[in-house]
Amino acid sequence: MLINKVSDQIKKSKYISRDLSWLRFNYRVLDQARDTNKSIFDRLKFLAITSSNLDEFFMIRVGSLYNYIDYGKERTDYSGLRELPFRKKLLDYSHRFVNDQYLTYNNELKPLFDKSGFDVLMVGELTEIEQKKVDGYFKNTIFPLLTPMVFDNYHGFPLLMNQLLTFGVVTRTDDEQKAQDRLTFVQIPQNLARFYEINRKDKIIFVPIEEIIRWKIKKLFRNVDIVSVNLFRITRNGDFTLEESDDIEADFVQEIKSKLKTRKKGRVVRLEVERNPSAFMMKVLKDRWVIDNANVFTINSLIDLRALWQIINHRQFKDRCFKQPSSVMPRSLPSDGIDLFQYLKEHDVLLHHPYNSMEPVVQLLERAAEDPYVLGIKQTIYRLADQSRVTAALLKAAENGKHVSVLFEVKARFDEERNLKEGDRLEKAGCFVIYGISKYKTHTKMLMIIRKEGEKVTRYVHIGSGNYNEQTARLYSDVSLLTTDEIYAHDVSEFFNVITGHSRPNEYKSLMTSPKGLRNQLIELIRNEARNAKKGLKSGIVIKINSLEDKEVMDEFYKASKAGVPIKLIVRGICCLRPGREDLSENIFVKSIVGEYLEHSRIYYFHNSGDAKVYSGSADVMVRSFDRRIEALFLLLNEDLKREAISILHYNLLDNQNSYIMREDGTYVKKRPAAGEDVVDIHKIFYNRTIYENADIELV
């Protein structure tokens, strides 16, 4: 009865729950791991990604929910559910997902290991000679790093680290007059590889480190009876970047922050444990961390599937999983070996990564660092590659006496330490470095090179949707613009003055920016389409983004739909809007594309009575993008490049190999080619430059 009531309440809401929508997105990623047309290594890669995704989901989104539960604050989800009923719904759905994850691993993928040149084996499945090697590895490497931590009347409960595998060992000594169980924790060292690798003649054997420790666990408990050995892993609340929490009010942020100062580590929100754990241990852990069975996930296999990256990245298999970066050049950049400084003075260039290499951007920056006519470089940085060529170029520019201004966003989740380190290097080299803008996260991606050319100065601008990370540029779908157009140059120059100084420009000609104005400007563009539809004029909206969650914009989509505006949304991940609901969103179509590349580009198309306005940039349609981040969308002014962007949207809508159609109830169905319909796979077709030759594409 209660289940039906909750389901009815969810169905009545005109919005989809952000968190339930995200879990459905992770199912679409899991679907890639189930795809028998992909190689075993690709399938393992996607399974590992689902595990990483779920870890972040529990740390951030479930952690955010527990901020309300733990501090007795009210919260109503988009689904209409209050915090405790929503917790139950969310964790029930998470249990279902984890069950499907491991069915995929155990039943569909593991049986393929042996014939694929590798296997994951337990110690007991090794030969005698192999066991001797493992024994030597344990004695010489593992054993010295293990530290048993007992919890009893004389020893306090130890601080167990987030997302580390831990053994809970229940013991009993012989000399106790009254039998009493004790619990000791042994954390597996995080600086050792998850698998010990053994080369056999025909394959590579991966032995889980936890199974080696289990095999030799008695070495840590001499003259003591071991009652049970239980492997588990905890996930703690990691939602400390509270300014980014879309559903937390400002005064509550300050309250939580003051309380968090007294906590060494976040509260436990998930406990993964192997089958048949000790009842004694489970009672201790659940009481200690104030969790119940809903937070406990029993795993019937390898705990923490992120471990699969060691197999995927193994030198023997890596080439089978990762494509070489594309050397395809965009139509607007016809050949290698051209002088980019000279070329960009005459032409704008639209890059579509990874189908176009990021090399032109990196090479332009590297050349600027050495060019005697370059006076200065200004750049925003959100995420960087390991051993970044971008950082190296900026360091070289500073060494060569050029003015270098860099805004490093130190609140880039999980990259905070790296950005601080790289920023410090640049500061020491003489660069002007800013570490974020007060309470806002700088998410926009901009680069400006100032070059003296005769009697005048030319500003070379790069602006896009993706990070300055040459590694992820091979795997992420992004769009970016290279230009010297004075309209962009003026706006970007003004924008840098805003974020590095104290300036408030009246308006931009080519940019829409947040936190000031972006939401309202998008709403006005939507309203313009609605006005045209009411006048009987042709109208239409096509938008490709990562996430759609902002209520104010969604309400405008609903109004525009009622006015007769056809709206097509390509939303990779979270989508809180309900498409196709009678008398609400009948004219709204939503699809998600999940496949070989991470769809990261943002493109906004508005028909505008035939004079289309097309924007791209860093911003999604989210509360945080509008209110808590520094973002920018740029208007495509060049007609040829505008057509290229429209062509990208066109083929995204046509794709029938990586697409999932969203239904009114928030579920998704995989799109398949209809009888006689051509196969359209955008992750293959975009390598063909001729697609941009479509002159007049009708999107709506």
Automatic annotation (TrEMBL):
The keyword ATP-binding applies. Its cofactor is Mg(2+). The active site is at H443 (phosphohistidine intermediate). Its EC number is 2.7.4.1. Mg(2+) binds at R383, R413. Residues 15-120 form the Polyphosphate kinase N-terminal domain. Pfam families: PP_kinase (PF02503), PP_kinase_C (PF13090), PP_kinase_C_1 (PF17941), PP_kinase_N (PF13089). It catalyses: [phosphate](n) + ATP = [phosphate](n+1) + ADP. ATP binds at N53, Y476, R572, H600. GO terms for molecular function: polyphosphate kinase activity. An intermediate of this reaction is the autophosphorylated ppk in which a phosphate is covalently linked to a histidine residue through a N-P bond. The keyword Metal-binding applies. Keywords: ATP-binding, Kinase, Magnesium, Metal-binding, Nucleotide-binding, Phosphoprotein, Transferase. Residues 340-504, 511-673 form the Polyphosphate kinase C-terminal domain. Residues 130-311 form the Polyphosphate kinase middle domain. Belongs to the polyphosphate kinase 1 (PPK1) family. Catalyzes the reversible transfer of the terminal phosphate of ATP to form a long-chain polyphosphate (polyP). HAMAP family: Polyphosphate_kinase. This is Polyphosphate kinase. It comes from Pontibacter populi. The gene is ppk1.
